[in-house]
Amino acid sequence: MVMVLATIVSYPIGLWLRQPWLLPILNALPGYVVLVHRLRKGERGGAVRAMLWWAVTVVLTGTVLFVWWPAPLAPVVAHGPEFQAEMFRWIRSGHGAEGSPRLFLPQHLLQLAAFVGLGLATAGAGAMLMGAFLMNYMSYYVAALARAGVPSWAVT
Questions:
Q1: What single-letter DSSP state applies at residue 74?
Q2: CA distance 78 to 83
Q3: Cβ neighbours of residue 50 closer than 8 Å, sequence gap 6 or more
Q4: SS3 state at 110
Q5: Over the stretch 66-92, which tens digit does the pLDDT of each residue have?
Q6: In angstroms, how far is CA 34 from the centroid of its own chain?
Q7: Which backbone phi and psi does 59 adopt, to 5 degrees?
Q8: CB neighbour class for 39 (10 Å; exposed up to 12, middle 13-18, buried from 19)
């Protein structure tokens, strides 16, 4: 419960500080502390459950706060505006990596390799940081859909 609350609180703090590199660090920190604590106690199942709760918290909190945050978030969410523009271009035209397995698969396989490599090299810290970074810019895009007037059922 503390991890979930700390992750939720990491968003307004990170957004208020307006440092794009700091937001994913603040988001990942509570989850990583719990992950290390649980693994040191030999609680593998508890560690897995905690990481699932952390991921759900990051997805929901980021998306909801990005929809309702009163200040512009483009300067704060790293890669958010670029990803939003890419996805909106794809939605409007059907052209882009999302519509082409030849473009989509290499990009996502590279991200997967980086995620696994970072996770192994940093005892999970780098993977959690990358996960927070990826989820933040995807949440930025989903929030942009909501702000653009897409019905809630379609955004969901």
A1: T
A2: 10
A3: 3, 31, 34, 35, 38
A4: helix
A5: 999 999 999 999 999 999 999 999 999
A6: 18
A7: -60, -50
A8: middle
How far is 76 from 102, CA to CA, in rounded Å? 31
Residue type for position 74: A
Average pLDDT over residues 126-154: 95
Take residue 103 and report the two structure tokens written for it: 């473009």
User: pLDDT above 70 covers what percent of the chain?
Assistant: 100
Other beta carbons within 10 angstroms of residue 63's beta carbon come to 22
Distance CA 62, CA 114 (A): 23
HSE, side-chain direction, 13 A CA sphere, residue 122: 14
Residue type, 108: H
Tokens representing residue 75 in the block: 């300067």
Whether residue 30 contacts residue 81, with contact meaning beta carbons closer than 8 Å, is answered with no
Instruction: List, for residues 90-106, the tens digit of each pLDDT value.
Output: 999 988 888 888 889 99
How far is it, in rounded angstroms, from Cα 122 to Cα 108? 21
| Look-up of token digits 């929030």 | 143
Two tokens at 65?
Answer: 């706060």
Q: Whole-prediction pTM value? A: 0.91
